[in-house]
Structure formats: structure tokens, C-alpha cells
Amino acid sequence: MSITANLAIGVFSIGFMAFAAAAQTAKDVKGATPLVAIPNEPPANLVVDPPVPEQLALGRVFIQYRTENLRILPVFGNAALSVSPRVGHLHYYVDGQSWPIVDTSGETVVLVGLKPGPHTVKLELADATHKPISGASQVVEFSVPQK
Amino acid sequence: MQVHSNQHRFAQLAALVMAACLTAAPGSAQTARQVRGAAAVEPIANEPAGKIVVDPPLAEPLSRGLVVIQYRTDNLHIAPVFGPAALAVSPRVGHIHVTVDDAMWVWADASGEPVILNGLAPGPHKVLLQLETANHQELDSGAVQFTIPNDTHPGSTHGAESRPASDTAPSHETEPPAKIIIDAPAPERLARGVVFLEYRTQNLQVVPVYGPAAVAVSPRVGHIHVTVDDATWHWADASGNPVIINGLLPGSHKVLIQLVNADHQPIDEGTVRLIIQQRSQ
């Protein structure tokens, strides 16, 4: 491939990357509408951000997350396993606790008042029967500063 | 762009492929914050302007006469929080107003879920989504225009034409029937021309979960359909928030709220009749 061609590709891809956020449709960002079933929906995925740094510096732990191919809703039971698009919820565990905190809000996980020092929070997606979804779990490690 | 050589053609093709890759998987590398915006618990100084991005109606449902309009917002969390005090909330909160076919009236939606309309007559239509502050001032808007094809059957999921819910609700034999209880319109708001209808349900959780499979979910799930003044069409709402309509002309009006199962079959309903007074200003 010639230099001209490479250059053209470079310019095009930079252009598209810069443009990506602005050009994204609602569907790109929010996922498929819940109104239409999705045959063979891809596996659920969990994306977890590190705690918001400015807030962590103040001792507040705000962990944002988002899901792909799973909607967080307070809908439970065996029958809900067949619902499409997929529904489920979040489990999280603080500092190795053995039992999950169940959250169906889809909102940022908020932990305020943790002792200064290192902590871990494990987040996992669970299906409507509370079974953890394989591959949809993340561990966040952080340190709460001394006051 | 003119294509002068195979080399250029190849470059163009390669660029298109790369662009396709970039647009096909934009979400995978994006953090939760990039996609969802700032956490609602974290105040933001000098937040940029609120914006709305409205997608065209989904094609396949539209071919059946069902209008599903997805939208997303930048720098504004959609939340059922209203009033002047909420203008100071950071990050910004707000909601949308929806107008169909240049009607004088709008309904407010603070669910963040897609706008869903069914039963519109065949032909061209326009839906306007206005992004509003918590105190109902417009920040941005987006409109979509679309055509309902002729060969659909408006109202086929609406009212008496539908199959009774009991035909398809096998797992609810032990669960008491679902009911909707609608309060009278809030009088002080009605005096200002705003129809504010609170409702609650019994033996049915209002959630945006749809389809035949969801009919078997127990406890039962469903949503509401709202019809104004005997229109052929209704909108669907799965938020559980009050129904809020503003701008109806002075005179008598009728709002039908149907409680439907996840597959849009009516279970119960209530009709609110109200009078909008002529306003002095």
C-alpha cells in the first residue's frame, strides 16, 4: 500500500475517532430498545470504572458501571430468565465479604465511610435467579486516603 | 470525491472498512462514565449544555405500525425531579416533553426509556422530543418524521380488539388479578392547565420488560397505555411515574389509562374525565 493510501486511512480514522462520541446514536450508547426481543443476544458484559478520583480523595467511593446485553431491573425468578432483551441485576461484595449486596437500581455504587487504607470491591452481574453470570465480574482495588 | 486510480479506490475502501470497525464497536473500549455521563452523586461545576440525540423509529416495529423512538441525553440525567429548586441540582436533571403531529399539548416523560406509540393512522407523522429542565424550560430538542405504512392494523394491541390477558397468563393462577387505581387529577395543577394523574397498581409491577416470555414472570410485570380524547393511538409508559399532560385546550377531555401485561394485552383500565378551564392569561 502506498504512502498516500496510508495517509488517507490515517486521516479517515482520526476523523472518525474524534467524531465517534458526537455521532453516536441513542442506540449506540444505550443499547437496544427493550421493546423488541433479540434472538441470540451476545453474552452480558460488565464495564466498571475505577472510583471517581476527586471523590476518592475526599474519602468517598463512587464506582460507576455500565452493562452490555443485560438490563438492570428488579425482575426475578425462573420465568424472567427467558425475557429478551436479557434482564438481571448487580451483586457487589466489599472487602471479601461472603454475601452479595443486591442492587437493582443501575445507579453508581456508593460507599462512604470506609476506613482509610486499601479496599476491594467485587461487582458481578447476576441473572434473575441471582446466579452470577460467568465472565461478567470485575474487581476494583483502591485506597481510601487518611483524613 | 473522485476516484482516479485503483490505489485511491483501495485507500477509500480501507478507510471505509476502518470506519465501519470504529462505528460497529464504539462501546467496547468506553468506560462507564464515557457512556453514561457523570455519576449522579458527583456534583459538576460548569456542566456543559444539556443535549438530546433522537434516533429514527426502529424500522421493523414501524413496519407493523409500532413507533419506537430511542433517545439519549448528554449532560442531563433523566429523572422524575421537578420544580425550580431542582434547577440547582448538579449534575443537571430534567425530562422530555413529547409532541405528536404538532399537537398543542405535550406529555412529560421522565423515564429515560424509549418513546413508544402505537395505533397512529397510516401516513406521515412527526414526533418532537423537547429536552426540558426540571422546571420545564426547553434546553434542546429533536424531531423525527416517519410514515406509518398502510398495511398495518392500528389499534391491534389496543382495547377490545386484543385478546384477553387471561388467555396467555398461565403462571398467574395463584396471583390475584392486577388492578390499576387512578387518583383524580391534582386540582391545583389542573387549575393551571396541567393534567397530573397519579396511579398505583396492585399485583403488577410496572417495569420496561416486554414480550410473550415476560408474561410468565411472577410476580406479574406490565406497563400502561395512555390514550387522550379517544385518539386511535396511545403511548406506552413503563416508568410507574405519574401521567403528566400539559397544553390541552380549554374544555372537557378524557384520559384513558390501560394497565397491560408485558405483551401489551389489557388487564384493567380507568378513564379520567376532566375539564380544562379557560385561563385568564
Task: Give keywords.
heterodimer; A: 147 residues; alpha+beta; Immunoglobulin-like; five-stranded mixed β-sheet; two-stranded antiparallel sheet; disordered N terminus; B: mainly beta; seven-stranded mixed β-sheet; 4 helices; 37% strand; globular
Mind summarizing the main beta sheet of chain A? Answer: 5 strands, mixed
Provide the β-strand percentage band of chain A. 35-45%
CATH class of the largest domain in chain A: Mainly Beta
First-to-last CA distance of chain B: 57 Å
User: Averaged pLDDT of chain B, please?
Assistant: 86
Outline:
The complex is a heterodimer of chains A (147) and B (281). With 147 residues, chain A is an alpha+beta fold.
Structural summary, described in words:
The complex is a heterodimer of chains A (147) and B (281). Chain A is α+β, with helices and mostly antiparallel strands and 147 residues long. Chain A folds into two domains: 30 residues; 103 residues, Sandwich (Immunoglobulin-like). Helices cover 20% and strands 36% of the residues of chain A. In chain A, the strands form three sheets. In chain A, strands 4, 5, 6, 8 and 9 form a five-stranded mixed β-sheet that branches. Chain A has a two-stranded antiparallel ribbon with strand order 1-3. Chain A has a two-stranded antiparallel sheet with strand order 2-7. The longest helix of chain A is centred in the N-terminal third of the chain and has 21 residues. Chain B is mainly β and 281 residues long. In chain B, strands 2, 7, 13, 14, 15, 17 and 18 form a seven-stranded mixed β-sheet that branches. Chain B folds into two domains: 100 residues, Immunoglobulin-like; 118 residues, Immunoglobulin-like (Sandwich), CATH 2.60.40.10. Chain B starts with 5 loop residues before the first helix and ends in a 5-residue tail after the last strand. Chains A and B meet through α1, α2 and β3 of A and α1 and α2 of B.
